[in-house]
Design a protein that fits this description.
438 residues, Methylamine Dehydrogenase, Chain H, five-stranded antiparallel β-sheet, 2 helices, 3% helix, globular
Length: 438
């Protein structure tokens, strides 16, 4: 298993544990009537191997994290601790700014969620490792943290000024959870997310803790963590939650677990407020058949339908895109598309995004003409969904193994490649940031 495959294998990822200013004019490649442009090619010193979705501000600037490279101190071996970065629009191209280099240890390492804007305009995210507590096999890894990044309080006279990191919470790996993933802000300014480990210890989770959904509230001078739900594992519940969360107007929370359910192939769950906390309902349990295995990432549309992906399984063996539609108190499950043409965990490693017309966009890990992944579009017409490839990755300048996508208001698609490019990060390349324009 290559390092790229290991990073995308959730079970492996659970166990595994300088500043630059560059103006890029970009590498442009025509792809299926689209224009594909490389905005930044990582070298390793400013980070490498990005896999999370980018964040776009009102001016069209991009913010993201690189999960590896950067600092290679003792706590960061062998892959590096990771960085946070900005790509700013400029008349001549894009300007790359290194915002923060994670140092490992108590400072944290391996950013494992997209950045989000908080109510104060600062950037917030999670780190899969670092801090306190012991997680993983025999407590071999630290349990991660939630952090805030903000510019220096005083005016910076140099392009090399690092942003300031503030740690909001360090997980212990016990009942509070451990190894956090994607976070979001709710309507009252609380941070809500899930942890892959921690919570309840149960043999149904293969001898590990089963994971939690948590909330960080900010009632006064600090942040207080509380567990909204602790997964119980086994065939009666999911475990190892590893997706972004979706909120509806009634206060329900939706997410996925990569394991658990009747056949231990993952679940989609709903958490409903009940006055004293939250109760859980599994609204779908995946199996080894056509529905796919290992769900990740959810979004919802205005009608309350949920859309997500699985990274393997389906009729083609390379994962699926699925829809769950509410109907008279229950849910109807549909497979919109099954991927084929690769091997192993070759399908989507992230969820899909939807444009204003209701089209879905996403990426696969190792399908396409060169088995380096694709950017795809699913269009609904005449009662069926049709598939088209917007870009087949080559593993060269365009990168390989694309991650999550984000759309801007003009319909441009922005994404990252975790591998490939010209940098040297363990022999797999350091990845790239790119854009597809209609």
């Amino acid at each position: 298993m290559t390092r790229s495959e290991q990073r995308r294998n959730p079970r492996f990822a659970r166990l595994a544990g300088i500043a630059c200013l560059v103006i890029l004019l970009g590498t442009t490649i025509a792809a299926h009537a689209q224009t594909f442009t490389v905005l930044h090619d990582f070298t390793g010193s400013e980070g490498g191997n990005p896999g999370q979705a980018l964040l776009i501000d009102a001016r069209g600037n991009l913010y993201g994290v690189a999960g590896e490279a950067g600092n290679y101190g003792s706590d960061c071996q062998p892959y590096g601790c990771g960085t946070a970065f900005e790509l700013k629009r400029a008349p001549s191209g894009w300007i790359f700014n290194l915002l923060y280099t994670f140092l490992g240890g108590y400072d944290g390492l391996r950013p494992d969620s997209s950045l989000v804007f908080g109510p104060d305009g600062a950037l917030y995210g999670s780190l899969a490792q670092g801090g306190i507590g012991r997680c993983g096999d025999s407590g071999s890894l630290t349990c991660g943290m939630i952090y805030r990044l903000a510019p220096p309080a005083s005016f910076c006279r140099s392009f090399l000024c690092s942003w300031n990191q503030t740690v909001l919470y360090r997980f212990t790996g016990l009942s509070d959870g451990g190894v956090p993933g994607q976070i979001s802000f709710d309507g009252t300014g609380n941070i809500v997310g899930s942890t892959e480990l921690g919570g309840l210890e149960n043999d149904g989770c293969s001898g590990y803790f089963c994971g939690t959904v948590f909330k960080l509230s900010h009632p006064g001078g600090g942040w207080t963590e509380g567990v909204l739900y602790a997964f119980q594992g086994g065939s009666g519940d999911g475990y190892w939650p590893d997706s972004s969360l979706v909120f509806d107007q009634a206060g329900n929370i939706y997410g996925t677990t990569i394991m658990g359910g009747y056949t231990y192939e993952g679940t989609v769950y709903q958490l409903t407020p009940n006055g004293s906390g939250y109760s859980e309902q599994m609204i779908y349990q995946f199996n080894t058949g056509d529905s796919g295995q290992g769900p990740t990432g959810l979004i919802s549309d205005a009608a309350g339908n949920l859309y997500g992906t699985t990274f393997t399984g389906g009729t083609g063996g390379c994962g699926t895109v699925f829809e769950l539609s509410p109907s008279n108190g229950s849910w109807i499950f549909s497979v919109l598309y099954s991927f084929s043409g690769g091997s192993g965990a070759c399908g989507p490693s992230a969820g899909v995004v939807m444009d204003a017309a209701g089209n879905l966009y996403g990426t696969t890990n190792r399908t396409g003409a060169d088995n380096r992944g694709v950017v795809f579009k699913l269009t609904y017409s005449g009662g069926a969904w049709s598939y088209s490839s917007l870009h087949d990755f080559t593993g060269g300048a365009d990168g390989a193994n694309p991650g999550a996508l984000v759309l801007d208001s003009s319909g441009n698609i922005f994404g990252v490649s975790s591998d490939g490019g010209h940098g040297e990060c363990g022999g797999f390349g350091c990845g790239a940031v790119w854009e597809i324009t209609p």
